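Hey,
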Amino acid sequence: MQVDYAQLTALSAILRTGSFDAAAAALGVTQSAISQRLKSLEERIGTPLVLRGQPCTGTKTGRRLAAHLDQVGLLEQGLARELTALTPRAARLRVAVNADSLATWFLPAAAQVPDLLFDLVVDDQDFSADWLRRGEVSAAVTAHETPVAGCDSHALGAIRYLATASPAFIARHFVDGVTADTIARAPMLRFDAKDNLQQNWMMAHLGAAPAPPSHRLPSSQGFIEASLLGMGWGMNPEILVKDHIAAGRLVPLLGDAYHDVALYWQASRIVSGALKPLTRSVRAATKLALISP
């Protein structure tokens, strides 16, 4: 089946901007033209591609088709670099990345590749590879070493996490020391329902993983602010809290008891050539920010 790229571009614009009107403005066409292109594509594919709402979102098939268009753009950009007669244009790249990488090293790496437009999906490192498996992203920062089918995997190093809290919080909740019993009653910070870092640390260093009362706070910087304010204890990247620890504003719960999470850069082989500049930048940035593998 041949794909009409004008129709695919309309679909991608709807998903990127969240509405038919905004997609029309982005492409310089009328709203009715966008609607007609999408209708024709849905009839051709035989399934709905967009869930109408505020904002509009893609169905599984719709997201996969939009990702295909991004891959075509990357391939065209790579070809343009090799053929001087062609003018390179910015290509869009959808990447799944965990929040702590985004807050530490990923943006400096991305900034070194100015001819890419990034569409970042933030997900836990234990689940980010699922986006690759579904074909909805072209690359991912993941905790999984084994390559997803059709992808290459590069070891990046590890993020080192420390269980930290404010001195006042520790004085209030751990007067008898940090034990499985005392930590079970101390408020904990949790990024989201997928976040098991705290439980992994407790099991490794306390021999048990209770379920303390917890705040749900899906922000790396928010985690640190909440720790500084004494709202709870949580696992923070050492690179983000080392200055606070040195100044005495945060204190590790158990000295230097840390938890390392190994990270890998997985990218689709179809666009590996086009992604070489970004892959080089990612590997260079992580040499400075992560614990060596």
